[in-house]
Write a structure and sequence with these properties.
- It is a single chain.
- By secondary structure, this protein is mainly α.
- It has a single domain, classed as Arc Repressor Mutant, subunit A (Orthogonal Bundle), CATH 1.10.10.
- Helices cover 78% and strands 0% of the residues.
- The chain contains 5 helices and no strands.
Length: 82
C-alpha cells in the first residue's frame, strides 16, 4: 500500500457515515467509490459499517439496553476517527 493510498483511506473514514446516508456531494461520492474499487480494506470497513447500521436499525428498541446504544455509538465514532 502506497503512502498516498494510506492518506486516502484516512480521508475516506471521515466521510463514511455521510456516504452511507447518501449525504455527500456527487463528486465526493465518485471519489469514494473509486477508492473502494481499489482498496479491499476500506471495502471491508464500509461493508461492516453498513451491516452494523442495518442491524441497529432492525433491532427492536426495547430489546437493546440503553447502555448498549451508548457503547455502539462510541465504537462507531472511534472507528470513524481512525
Amino acid at each position: 500500500m502506497t503512502h498516498q493510498h494510506t492518506v486516502l483511506c484516512g480521508e475516506l473514514r471521515g466521510y463514511l457515515s455521510d456516504y452511507l446516508d447518501g449525504a455527500v456531494q456527487e463528486a465526493v461520492c465518485r471519489e469514494i467509490e473509486k477508492h473502494l474499487a481499489e482498496c479491499p480494506d476500506c471495502r471491508v470497513q464500509v461493508d461492516t459499517l453498513k451491516k452494523t447500521i442495518t442491524l441497529y436499525r432492525l433491532a427492536p428498541r426495547e430489546e437493546v439496553p440503553a447502555e448498549t446504544h451508548v457503547r455502539l455509538w462510541k465504537v462507531l465514532e472511534l472507528e470513524m476517527s481512525h
